[in-house]
């Protein structure tokens, strides 16, 4: 048969890293690789009660086809929990916030459209945009987020800038208040729309992050949120909030993509969220993740001493960003680390342009504090091994040079 | 802000019919419009048991992120229930079979690619393909499906033909065994891939439909199935079966689209399907829908007598196709019908090319047999009214002509 692939599909390649990480699913490997919330935080009994209640009270409607916009009371709950005035009519319930990225790409990106992203940025966003064949352009970034001058320089004719201001995936960094103010002013002046992705914002450790960019200019932003990190990812529920002019297009794209997100799941979440459940539940997640982040920082201080490794101190979320000493390469390190029982994700796939091969992402939420300690010690071993290799190779090179 | 829409989004227009049908949600209207399965058929207590069991036995995994391919035991159950040898590795679980259409479009359609469809075809497929901006080409069709000669004539350079052989949406027609054999031979000869959509195949009334096209040439077909019509649509679960060469591309598109379908729902359905549940449950749906189809046929025979209306007799599924007498128009009839308390969907949106304005789709599954009787009587009234209007207009025209 003449199966002819679309040009975009010809370009899709199986991820080398995904293949390596498949190995990490074998027992005995401690994975700091995945972005999997700790299953200890899933409110299983609350879900069990909600399921029973929804099926008992409203089973036929919960199992029927439903509006593409989403379940009314859930849209209202989302609007009410956001820190700026949101009309529920602007809330679209999505099949995870990943789907929001797919819908935005369909509505806003033509082939070769320029879309601006952070350096580095969320890999899943690059994957979601890619079927629409845009050109993803990296905006220079530091520990506080994108650099405003570079953003201004690249703003012209870009369709939007994609930003993840809170506890970013992959770096764990947070955009400061002053940077937000500057980015908001610069994008408004340039007329550049923002797509603001905020799956981790509620997972702060000591203090809540600054106000979202969308709150500062709601007509210039599409905001994405998720229930995956505050309730559970396995329900696949997220949402977006869009300006009224853009909303109908996103809704039509949603209808064509999967008709609507599961009505049953929407009612379950709506039921669970009643009576301030998130207000009681989310602090327990914050406390757990903070303990695990502290365990990771302590282990890194202890185990990496003298190795020339640098890393940041995330104020929330799920990830920490680490940079290996000069001459090492995270992709080459991964099999060594897996050999020693620990997995991570190398940093390069998270860059739209050329990546820094010394970087890697560590998750502190899936493994326990004790496992994190063991894993970081193993990782330090792997780094030492790679450094020794490199030193040996250097000696070899010098011998060869002096013999020549 | 400079929100610039993608070209595909500029072309998206709110459906006029969708707007009219919003009116039909008001109480007192009997809707023969929607494709909503009868909620009486939803196995609510089986779902309640399955939810409790899944959360009790396997709650953490059911609520966690999961593989994009889908839940292993569900993929195996799907492979086992299909009437040809299927490797579970070829089964991709989707967020409703609608999502399967979106993924196929991403993987197989470039802008201006030709995709062949029936006359008429499923509107949701046209909507799912449309973001990839293909050219949808109607293949001439009769009561048995696409005409083989026209299919052959249009096969060259087409990416695939999209076929819905069982109790088609919108017409309710079924492709006969001889037509299947001829279509299968013609597409194999032309090297033309088939996308076979089969959401309704289990809903037969007197005898099972002939073997799927995919069973005749698995390497030349992608097959789409759904749990929406045999269990419940509100879980949003479907599946596709693809040749091994195409599967990895569809999987990557799936990952980018929503990471994976809800793990919780997949386990629920897997749990419900244990011990031959569908074998006991589906016959009850068939019996109900057959009674309601019979009620619709009887009402049409009774109420439409002498009006010049023609209609088919579907052997299964959810829909019946009706053609109004010459000079009438289904879009113009709709407000008249809604006025009298009945809604339907006009036929024209289901055509990729110019549609037959006299056609309309009636669903016999949502309303009860009694409501169907009332609704068809109201519809006949609306037809009579339109015919009277038309006759009056004709008299007027003749008077004006003779006066001139």
TrEMBL record, chains A, B:
It comes from the Bacteria. InterPro entries: Aminotransferase_I/II_large, Class-I_PLP-dep_aminotransf, PyrdxlP-dep_Trfase, PyrdxlP-dep_Trfase_major, PyrdxlP-dep_Trfase_small. It is an enzyme of class 2 (transferase). Pfam families: Aminotran_1_2. Signal peptide: none annotated. Gene3D superfamilies: Aspartate Aminotransferase, domain 1, Type I PLP-dependent aspartate aminotransferase-like (Major domain). The keyword Chaperone does not apply. Residues 43-379 form the Aminotransferase class I/classII large domain. Its cofactor is pyridoxal 5'-phosphate. It comes from Variovorax soli. Its EC number is 2.6.1.-. This is 2-aminoadipate transaminase. GO terms for molecular function: transaminase activity. Keywords: Aminotransferase, Pyridoxal phosphate, Transferase.
